[in-house]
Amino acid sequence: MVTIKFPNQETQDEAVGFLAGVFPGTVLATGEVIVPEAALAALVHENFSFTVIGRATYEQQTAAFRA
């Protein structure tokens, strides 16, 4: 899983909607989004702008379950 960030909320909403149902993912309170590496190619193919932060940590991946 990889942590990415979109340039603005509108792009994030559109991209998360595009990915929903195809790839699992988590939107963190920080605005970062955790997606599988395969989702990156799909986002690029659809011309979404985003920045790769890096590999998601175990804590990030499990944060949604503790909330």
Major sheet summary line: 4 strands, antiparallel
Report the radius of gyration as a whole number of Å: 11 Å
Distance between the termini: 20 Å
Number of strands: 4
**Molecular shape:** globular
Strand residues, percent: 15-25%
- Total DSSP helices: 3
Oligomerization status of the protein chains: single chain
Taken in chain order, the helices and strands follow as: EHEEHEH
State the low-pLDDT regions, or none.
Answer: none
pLDDT average, as an integer? 90
Describe the structure.
This protein is α+β, with helices and mostly antiparallel strands. 43% of the residues lie in helices and 22% in strands. The protein has helices at residues 9-19, 37-45, 58-66; strands spanning 2-5, 26-27, 32-35, 51-55. It has a four-stranded antiparallel beta sheet. The longest helix is centred in the N-terminal third of the chain and has 11 residues, at 9-19.
Descriptors:
67 residues, four-stranded antiparallel β-sheet, globular
What secondary-structure arrangement, pairings included, does this model have?
Blueprint: E1 2-5, H1 9-19, E2 26-27, E3 32-35, H2 37-45, E4 51-55, H3 58-66
Antiparallel strand pairs: 1-3, 1-4, 2-3
Summed up:
With 67 residues, this protein is an alpha+beta fold. It has helices at 9-19, 37-45, 58-66; strands at residues 2-5, 26-27, 32-35, 51-55. A four-stranded antiparallel β-sheet has the order 2-3-1-4.
